[in-house]
Amino acid sequence: MAQALVDRHDVELAASAAAGGRREFGELVRRHGSAVRALLRRMGAQPALADDIAQDAFIQAFERCSEFRGDGTFAAWVKRIAARLYIKRVAKEARYVAEVETEETVAAPDPGGLMDLDEALRGLSEAERLCVSLCHGAGMAHPEIATALNLPLGTVKSHVKRGLDKLRARLQSAETLGRTQHVG
Q1: What is the pTM of this model?
Q2: Residue 113 phi, psi dihedral angles, 5° rounding
Q3: How far is CA 92 from CA 68, 88, 149, 156, 161, in A?
Q4: Which of 62, 78, 107, 138 has minimal Cβ neighbours within 10 Å of its Cβ?
Q5: Last residue in a domain, options 28, 62, 95
Q6: What is the CATH number of the domain that holds 136?
């Protein structure tokens, strides 16, 4: 029976979960739990907080499984739930500063010239990291992010653009450094 769950599509599993299928929903959690936690970490959550919010997101997803229609992926749907929960948590704890803070110093690429996305994201300001993660990690549109964060649309667009520009520069710099070290 376990093999049958692995072979089933997310839409089928979600429909079964909406009818009370706990094993089917467990399979969805197994498939997408790591991706949800990774998104939350990229948004700035510490590991324990990412785990807590991911768990809350999956509880909400289970309770609202009948709302999932399969228009997008289940992973994207549950990531949006998790992103919204994280935003609420950050706002509640007053850790998020809506104004553009002073630019953070971007650390130099590692000596090996290898850098992953998580490392590059740590070089962004909190606002940039959050807006980029919501846009490209959770698939939220700029107006949706602006509403969720209670920020002007132009500010969200600026954070996303500036964040992406910084990411490109950091990743290109790391790639260039890696190539010169391997050639030399």
Answers
A1: 0.69
A2: 80, 5
A3: 27, 6, 12, 20, 26
A4: 107
A5: 95
A6: 1.10.10.10
Q: 67 and 31, same structural domain?
A: yes
Tens digit of pLDDT for each residue in 132-163? Answer: 999 988 888 999 888 888 889 999 999 999 99
Q: Give the containing element (helix H, strand E) for 33.
A: helix 22-43
Overall domain count for the chain: 2
Q: Are the C-beta atoms of 83 and 134 separated by less than 8 Å?
A: yes
Cβ atoms of residues 41 and 61 within 8 Å = no
Residue whose structure tokens are 């969805």: 28
Single residue among 65, 95, 125 that ends a domain in this structure: 95
Taking the C-alpha atoms of residue 176 and residue 135, their distance in angstroms, rounded to an integer, is: 27
Going by C-beta distance under 8 Å and a sequence separation of 6 or more, which residues neighbour residue 135?
141, 142, 145, 160
Return the structure tokens found at 182. 């391997």
Find the DSSP H helices in 64-152.
74-92, 117-121, 126-132, 142-149
pLDDT digits (tens, 9 = 90+) for 70-104: 888 999 999 999 999 998 888 776 544 444 444 44
